[in-house]
Specification:
The complex is a heterodimer. Chain A contains five helices and no strands.
Chain lengths: 156, 95
């Protein structure tokens, strides 16, 4: 296996772990009905659950982006910006639509920009972030299949 | 104002895609001709009741389109913030 494919294999192993973390945090978020509660009324424990979810969501998407970039590089895509990576991922059917990726990215960026007191803005962003988790997992699933089938990486 | 006519047209188009009735100002460092570089700060007035997701999407699309960091202050008249008054008094109205 080439060093770059070994690097991709390493990213896939890392992503598996990160996905477990995010799935756990997402489950906690839903189990405690945090999405439907006003942020200002959350207990300290609920705030921690929300903080963990936000962090794990951000990390998972960031690393998924790095995995997509590495796959594109392996396929010798000319990359001048991340839009080239998204265009490749769409063509490779890893992404159903680049817009799916951008929705999750935009919500993640916006939520990191808001003050906790801004309830009217924060609450819909948290709900949308929770809604984006299955989409990110689907993108991850498709990336894993692509790596296995097309690159012969990540079979174990 | 350090923003060319193409950037103005593009920005207003993107903002009105998400906030159809938007009135738009540019404020912050980009209205100061003596400075260089800097983010694009837009102040938007709208009657749209739910602004969270449109704000997230508009910010992302503007960042992609302009190739620079973009910040939005969106006033849908549900609460007053000092930044709204600062942006409106110091800003340049674009549309």
């Amino acid at each position: 296996m080439t060093p770059h494919r070994e690097l991709i294999a390493g990213k896939l192993r890392h992503m598996r772990r990160m996905r477990e973390y995010l799935a756990h945090s997402h489950g906690n978020l839903l189990a405690h009905s945090i999405v439907s509660k006003p942020v200002g009324s959350l207990t300290l424990q609920e705030s921690e659950i929300l903080a963990a979810f936000r962090m794990r969501f951000s990390e998972f998407q960031e690393h998924l982006g790095k995995l997509l970039r590495a796959i594109a590089q392996e396929e010798e895509v000319e990359i001048t910006g991340f839009s080239d990576v998204l265009a490749f991922a769409e063509k490779a059917e890893i992404l159903a639509s680049a817009d799916d990726w951008k929705k999750a990215r935009d919500v993640r960026n916006q939520i990191n920009h808001e003050y906790e007191e801004n309830e009217r803005v924060l609450a819909p962003l948290i709900a949308e972030m929770a809604n984006c988790v299955p989409t990110l997992f689907l993108i991850h699933d498709r990336a894993v299949v692509y790596c296995t089938d097309r690159l012969g990486v990540g079979k174990n | 104002m350090r923003m060319n006519s193409e950037q103005v047209e593009l920005s207003v188009k993107v903002i009105r895609k998400y906030f159809a009735d938007a009135t738009v100002w540019l404020f912050g460092s980009r209205v100061d001709d003596t400075r260089k570089g800097g983010d694009f700060d837009f102040y938007i007035e709208t009657t749209l009741p739910d602004i969270a997701l449109p704000m997230a999407r508009a910010r992302g699309e503007l960042t992609d389109s302009l190739g620079m960091k973009v910040d939005l202050a969106v006033n849908n008249h549900t609460g007053d913030k000092p930044i709204f008054r600062i942006a409106k008094s110091n800003g340049v109205r674009l549309a």
